[in-house]
């Protein structure tokens, strides 16, 4: 054993104390830096936040009027950069022409040695800033921006623009560069809203200030190539000339447009046209083996590749759900689905190579079939996507990072089937996915904005765009606390974050059962039932929803935006829309109750009954007028951003409500008039007014398939999900069930009347023979997250079989003339459970069904996936 001498021990102790003191000093300095960063991040009006910020000791004004000087730039570079500043200056309301600031733009190689302070500082960051970074020094009334490239100088000007507009009044030094070299915003323009050329130019301008360097679009059918000009909608498209115009416009703002065309799946819109139907592998997939289809893709992609100016082209090719279900199934089975997919991608790769473009594609199919990347060229760029708040993103990153493949992470801002984009989910998703991607080698942040459902405005998305811009430029967690303040300053010129607070107050609706996930099923529901049918309204969440909406409205009313006022109007519309939905449920239930009272009073107290009917008619009229105002406001907002295409579909959701209310108002006024001196009030069901409140929460969203023909009424097929073993598994939307050699699809279905689901009405649309004995299947899942479920209640036709987790738990009894609710004892612990109902049609009673749990269990759903709503809420991507 070695023992130190006393002298050596003392010397060692001094070294330990010295090292410990250094460590403590470093920790103190780091803590001080952290606190300073947090403080600056909360007040510096720059977004994205710079990598390095050092505040000076002295005050300094930043007037927009400037003495513009350059060093090392040629005349064209100076003119371009000065033009951007002059445009900004002309827009600034408070611009002073009397006092000017000196703005000097200089390439780093030309930085004068006399500027010793900046030269000294530049040595620390010269290598870090790369081709897009910059240094900004504001001292003694002069602003110097230095960079290696014109792009870096342009981004420095964007930072100065934000400082100037916000009235920043201190000396400052900034060294800045991006976390990701490729920073993309990807806008879905194929599911409904397609922006006007002018609005896309405004998007480019606003995104450029955020240092976004690529804009891309989701394109299925809304382009008009010269070779095939007949598939684009007449009132909503981008022509090749317009794409070239936009590419050139983006160049002015140091942005490029990434081209794209859906080149495999999601092809149903083009295949629906008679002249292109033969190109289909299925109704949703173009056929890779069809010569006409291959020529079509070569023509269209070739034209688009030449019009979009970015070095990549996105062939998409995601979600090929029908890959092995079409006319080439035999061939695909012989070579494998992965080989079939890869062969098509290699064909597309060859098309793009002719036009000197690198191929991008979505990564989901390559994750599902892990051999696909081995069959494709190494220089393909994989766009790996996930839009939820995941605990880990390895599932979407490791398949590419582990093989050394180039990939970009694709978080999302989802409007899809929502009343307003879920910015809580988007913010967490963008942060988590970009951070994970950066750690594992992603070369870009490719933030997507999806519009499935088609009733959305881009002006609702900007908070997500700014979040994406920040996280694709600067991943530091220390700056997150100040984001909302900086967003308000840079986006609206407002120091108070009223808009942001109103936005997140509105998003509290996502946790209520009635407005869960803020999906649009509530908006799509009928205000009135069909004639002779009931409408049940569970309004237990309405008071909480109205409180949230009132608070959100008050917060937004306090906002005083100086810029981008359309964003505020769009949020105001969503608040008004939700408020009207809540009011309508209460008003109609109360008016219907008054009418029922009038019906009971009419023989003896006709005058009182007439008064009640008039009150109901007045309430319905007032409600109708509010829907008209809401419709007209949205129409104006739509046309400020979008082309007319799809507007009729959006307006139809308003019109159906307005027309229904108008019809009810007319029926009430007519009923109020005595016939032969006698008040004759029709039954509520006769005038579509059989509306009542209920405490029950019914399962209103299902996957449905069928109808399956059977030999005898009241019997059901023996198979569980499909007669064919290949598909005899829990279904997904669009999945297949086979029966007697025929394929049936599982389709999503959302009830519009609050409870009872009418299969006669649903299947009649599919053209089934009403007189034949038939059976429909209904499927959903239930995730039990709290206490165990001990019973379910099912109302259905006699002979309905109820299955849970693959086992039959009940057969609904009854007779041919009456369907009663049956209590089914069951024991469901925590976890996911699968429900299947086999529902036979009975010609003597309506072909209807419903299902619910006990009222003490709060139930919420994302489409056909239900959960008992304990404290552990699960918010799923739609």
Automatic annotation (TrEMBL):
Keywords: Glycosidase, Hydrolase, Signal. It catalyses: Hydrolysis of terminal non-reducing N-acetyl-D-hexosamine residues in N-acetyl-beta-D-hexosaminides. InterPro entries: Beta_hexosaminidase_sua/sub (IPR025705), GH (IPR017853), Glyco_hydro_20_cat (IPR015883), Hex-like_dom2 (IPR029018), HEX_bac_N (IPR015882). This is beta-N-acetylhexosaminidase. It comes from Dyadobacter helix. One of its GO terms (cellular component) is membrane. GO terms for biological process: carbohydrate metabolic process; glycosaminoglycan metabolic process. Its EC number is 3.2.1.52. Belongs to the glycosyl hydrolase 20 family.
């Amino acid at each position: 054993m070695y023992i130190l001498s006393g002298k050596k021990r003392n010397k060692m102790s001094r070294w330990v104390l010295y090292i410990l003191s250094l460590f403590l000093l470093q920790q103190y300095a780091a803590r001080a830096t952290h606190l300073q960063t947090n403080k600056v991040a909360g007040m510096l009006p720059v977004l994205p936040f710079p990598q390095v910020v050092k505040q000076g000791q002295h005050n300094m004004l930043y007037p927009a009027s400037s003495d513009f000087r350059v060093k090392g730039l040629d005349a064209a570079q100076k003119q371009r950069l000065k033009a951007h500043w002059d445009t900004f200056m002309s827009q600034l309301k408070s611009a002073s022409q009397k006092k000017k600031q000196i703005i000097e733009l200089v390439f780093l190689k030309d930085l004068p040695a006399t500027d010793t302070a900046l030269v000294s500082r530049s040595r620390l960051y010269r290598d870090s800033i790369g081709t897009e970074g910059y240094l900004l020094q504001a001292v003694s009334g002069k602003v110097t921006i230095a960079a290696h490239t014109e792009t870096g100088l342009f981004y420095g000007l964007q930072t100065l623009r934000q400082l100037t507009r916000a009235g920043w009044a201190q000396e400052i030094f900034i060294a800045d560069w991006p976390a990701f070299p490729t920073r993309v915003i990807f806008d879905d323009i194929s599911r409904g809203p397609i922006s006007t050329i002018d609005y896309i130019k405004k998007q480019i301008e606003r995104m450029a200030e955020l240092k976004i360097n690529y804009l891309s679009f989701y394109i299925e059918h809304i382009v008009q190539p010269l070779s095939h000009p007949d598939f684009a909608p007449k009132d909503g498209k981008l022509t090749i000339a317009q794409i070239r115009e936009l590419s050139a416009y983006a160049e002015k703002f140091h942005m490029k447009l990434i081209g794209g065309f859906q080149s495999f799946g999601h092809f149903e819109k083009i295949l629906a046209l008679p002249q292109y139907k033969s190109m289909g592998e299925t109704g949703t997939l173009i056929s890779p083996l069809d010569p006409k289809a291959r020529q079509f893709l070569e023509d269209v992609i070739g034209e688009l590749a030449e019009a979009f100016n970015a070095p990549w082209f996105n062939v998409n090719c995601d979600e090929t759900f029908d890959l092995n279900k079409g006319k080439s199934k035999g061939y695909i089975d012989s070579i494998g689905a992965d080989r079939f997919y890869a062969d098509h991608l290699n064909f597309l790769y060859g098309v793009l190579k002719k036009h000197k473009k690198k191929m991008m594609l979505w990564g989901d199919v390559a994750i599902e079939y892990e051999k696909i990347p081995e069959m494709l060229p190494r220089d393909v760029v994989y766009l790996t996507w996930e839009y939820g708040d995941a605990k880990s993103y390895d599932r979407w990153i490791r398949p590419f990072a582990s093989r050394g493949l180039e990939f970009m992470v694709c978080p999302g801002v989802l409007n899809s089937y929502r009343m307003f984009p879920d910015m809580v989910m988007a913010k967490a998703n963008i942060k988590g996915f970009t951070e994970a991607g950066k750690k594992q080698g992603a070369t870009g942040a490719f933030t997507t904005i999806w519009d499935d459902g088609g009733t959305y405005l881009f002006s609702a998305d900007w908070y997500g765009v700014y979040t994406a811009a920040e996280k694709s430029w600067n991943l530091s967690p220390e700056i997150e606390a100040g984001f909302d303040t900086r967003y308000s300053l840079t986006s609206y010129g407002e120091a108070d974050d009223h808009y942001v607070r109103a936005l997140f107050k509105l998003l509290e609706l996502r946790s209520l059962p009635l407005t869960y996930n803020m999906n649009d099923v509530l908006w799509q529901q009928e205000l009135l039932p069909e004639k002779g049918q009931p409408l049940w309204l569970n309004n237990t969440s309405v008071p909480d929803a109205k409180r949230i909406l009132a608070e959100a409205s008050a917060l937004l009313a306090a906002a005083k935006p100086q810029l981008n006022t359309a964003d505020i109007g769009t949020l105001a519309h969503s608040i008004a829309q939700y408020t009207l939905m809540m009011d309508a449920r209460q008003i109609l239930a109360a008016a219907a109750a008054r009418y029922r009272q009038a019906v009971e009073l009419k023989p003896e107290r006709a005058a009182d009954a007439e008064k009640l009917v008039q009150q109901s008619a007045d309430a319905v009229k007032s409600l109708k007028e509010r829907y008209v105002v809401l419709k007209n406001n949205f129409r104006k907002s739509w046309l400020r951003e979008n082309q007319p295409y799809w507007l009729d579909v959006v307006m139809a959701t308003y019109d159906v409500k307005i027309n229904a209310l108008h019809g009810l108002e007319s029926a009430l006024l007519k009923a109020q008039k005595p016939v032969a001196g006698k008040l004759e009030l029709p039954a509520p069901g006769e005038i579509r007014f059989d509306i009542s409140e209920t405490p029950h929460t019914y399962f209103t969203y299902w996957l449905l398939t069928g109808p399956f023909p059977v030999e005898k009424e009241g019997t059901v097929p023996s198979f569980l999900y499909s007669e064919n073993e290949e598909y005899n598994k829990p279904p997904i939307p669009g999945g297949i069930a086979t029966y007697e050699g025929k394929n049936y699809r599982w389709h999503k279905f959302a009830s519009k009347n609050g409870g009872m689901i009418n299969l006669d009405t649903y299947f009649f649309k599919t053209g089934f023979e009403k007189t034949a004995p038939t059976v429909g299947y209904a499927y959903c899942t239930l995730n039990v997250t709290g206490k165990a479920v001990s019973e379910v209640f099912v109302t259905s036709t006699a002979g309905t079989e109820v299955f849970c987790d693959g086992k039959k738990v009940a057969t609904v009894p009854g007779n041919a003339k009456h369907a009663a609710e049956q209590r089914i004892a069951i024991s469901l612990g925590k976890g996911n459970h699968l429900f299947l109902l086999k529902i036979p049609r009975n010609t003597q009673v309506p072909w209807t069904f419903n299902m619910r749990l006990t009222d003490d269990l709060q139930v919420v759903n994302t489409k056909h996936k239900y959960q008992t709503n304990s404290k552990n809420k699960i918010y799923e991507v739609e």
